[in-house]
Amino acid sequence: MKARVKWIDGVAMLGESGSGHGVVMDGPPELGGRNVGVRPMELLLIGMGGCTQFDVLLILRKSRQEVTDCVVELTADRAAADPKVFTRIHAHFILTGRGLDPRQVERAIKLSAEKYCSASIMLGTTAAITHDFECRDA
Hints:
Helix content is 32%, strand content 38%. The chain is an alpha+beta fold. The chain folds into 2 domains: 1-38, N-terminal domain of TfIIb (Single Sheet); 40-137, K homology (KH) domain (GMP Synthetase, Chain A, domain 3), CATH 3.30.300. Helix 1 (40-62) crosses helix 2 (102-116).
């Protein structure tokens, strides 16, 4: 896997993935930014959310669960002193579907957290990661 980060100006940067996609990152005005992009640490949190959601949806599809929508709401705390690593992350899954089995959803989230989501497992070395979920009927 490869990526490239190009400095734009101030503290703004353009991240380019090996698959050809880009994302603008920037900082707050008090640190010289113009607030035109996502903060790099926010991007890490978003990446974890995407990684675990991908796993959960794939596992549920293989379990023949009919998911029509999935949102992962993430909240995180960071250390007060440098390096300001994540110390706590909570992922709240909101799954909508037809006849979703909560046991299958719980199993999928657990498998993602403990076995498949490399982002969660990596961030879990510094942060306590918790999960919960709710199932809604479509």
